[in-house]
Amino acid sequence: MHPNPKFRIDDGAVRRAMVLEIGLVHLLTMTSQAPVAAHAPVIPTPCGNFCFHLARNNRIAAHLDGAIVMASAMGPNGYVSPDWYAEPHNQVPTWNYVSVEIEGICAALDRAALIDQIDALAALYEGRLLPKQPWTMAKIDAVPRDRMLSALPCFELRGTQIRGKHKLSQNKSVVDREDVSAALGGSSLARAMAS
C-alpha cells in the first residue's frame, strides 16, 4: 500500500465496510515451496473477523489452517494520465485506487460454520438482487448439497491488522482533483473521488 498517510483510512468500520462492498478478496500465503494465492468471497463474523470458503482442491486450501495469510480487496481503481492535470509537464502517470489488506491467522471451521457462512453470504448478496426471490440453502436438494459442502472447506481469518487506502488524488490541488474526476467520467473511481 502507498506509504503516504494522506491516503490511509483510519476508521476500522470503514475498512470493514469496504471489504463487504468489494466482497471478493485475494488470499496470499507462503508454503515451503512457493507463495500461493486464491480468491474467495468473505463475510464478517460477529467478533470482527472474516469467514470464507473455497474449493478443497484449490492449491491454497491445504495450506490455510494455522497459516499467516494476507487478504487483499481491491475496489475502484484506474490509471491517471498526467495530461489531466493543470500542469501536466510537472507530473508523471499514476494510479488511483481503493483497497484494504487484512493480515492474520487462518483457522479451519466445521461444516456447521460453512453452512452459516454460505447462508450469511447468500443473505447479504441476494439482498442486492431484489426484487428477485432470494436463494437459500433450502432450494438445493440434499444429495448435491452434501456433495458440494464436502468439497468446500471453510476458514476464519482472524485479522491481526487491517489496513485501508483510498489513493484518490488527495495530494493534488482541488482543480487537479476535479479535472481527474471529470476525465474519469461517471466511473466508480470518479464516484469514489467525489465521496
Instruction: Indicate the overall shape.
Output: globular
Q: Count the DSSP helices.
A: 5
**Widest sheet: strand order?**
2-3-4-7-6-5
Distance between the termini: 21 Å
Helix fraction, binned, reads 25-40%
Structural class by SSE content: alpha+beta
Mean pLDDT: 93
Unreliable spans are none
User: Which series of helices and strands comes N to C?
Assistant: EHEEEEEHHEHH
Radius of gyration: 20 Å
Instruction: Please state roughly what percent of the residues sit in beta strands, choosing from under 5%, 5-15%, 15-25%, 25-35%, 35-45% or over 45%.
Output: 25-35%
Major sheet attributes: 6 strands, antiparallel, barrel
Record field, number of beta strands = 7
Quick overview:
27% of the residues lie in helices and 34% in strands. By secondary structure, the chain is α+β, with helices and mostly antiparallel strands. It has a 6-stranded antiparallel beta barrel.
Summarize the structure in words.
With 195 residues, the protein is an alpha+beta fold. The protein is built from five helices and seven strands, in the order βαβββββααβαα. It has helices spanning 12-22, 111-126, 142-150, 174-183, 188-194; strands at 8-9, 24-30, 35-44, 50-53, 68-80, 94-109, 154-167. Strands 2-3-4-7-6-5 form a six-stranded antiparallel barrel. A hairpin with a 5-residue loop joins strand 3 (35-44) and strand 4. Helix 4 (174-183) packs antiparallel against helix 5 (188-194). The protein is globular. The protein starts with 7 loop residues before the first strand and ends with a helix. The mean pLDDT is 93.
